[in-house]
What does this fold into?
Amino acid sequence: MVAEFVSLAAMMGAALYVSAHPLPKRYDDILDPREYDFSQVPSYKIQGTIGREKPQAKRRYAMMITGTQPRHHNTGMLVLEALLDKGYQPEDIWIFEGSEGNPKYPCAQVLPSAKRDVRDTFNYLRHQITPDDSFFFFLGTHANKKIFQDAHILLENKSTISEPELEEMVGSLQPNYSLLYFNSCFGGNFAKRLGVRRRIAIASCLSNKFLHSNWTARKEEKELERIYGAFTTLFTLHFFAALRGMTPDGKELGSSVGTIESAFDYASQKQWEQSGRWFFRKNTPLLIAGEINAKDIEF
It folds into this structure.
């Protein structure tokens, strides 16, 4: 696989690498992102081989694990709106939020955020999803990781799902392709493990990194908060708006943003431009593709 880098410094002709540890061409070679300086790199991509035919899906399934905190719920609503806008059917969308499920989500199947329910739904989908279909997974709640251990999704009922457990659940499905999006702390750990075969894995931050929410006093962000309420990251806000062909405040983007890769690049750049303080640039979005390429996939 070949690594691709998007950088303001590179666009201006400046040196891409700014530390004693140049970014390697394979993300697998990065044992710990904390050893590298990502301050001049708005995003990090590793693409798979471009296929001869664009992956297609007759039916599209989606699963979302969100949280009850306003920033998690509001972000989940944005994702759901994008799914419905792009033609996902309500009966093919499962959302896990809260100990009893959250009725505030319209037009979707909402279940308690418990490990048993998540696993049962994966078992159900295993018999429903065919090689002609696609699968979308969104993680938008807390995750934790202890040193030298795997990351864990923290569910509302206090149960957890580890990296290997999620890998097993996702691996039990056999769709044409999958898009996995991790908008949580240590999202890069999940993306690095699951971004293989016919999957594209996106994370709002690198492995072994906490996800920092974008709270600044900049006028642009305050306006977005006025529209959406609390949200998690600018990257996720722009990414799912771009997939709908618009900016977060509803302006049309045109046909230039139509694939997963173009939305990723656009959102990474907007987060870079709009983050008001250097602290929030610690979020480096990550895209890892296995045997397919994000240039070929539309949402």
Q: What stands out?
A: Residues 1-21 have pLDDT under 50 and may be disordered. The radius of gyration is 18 Å.
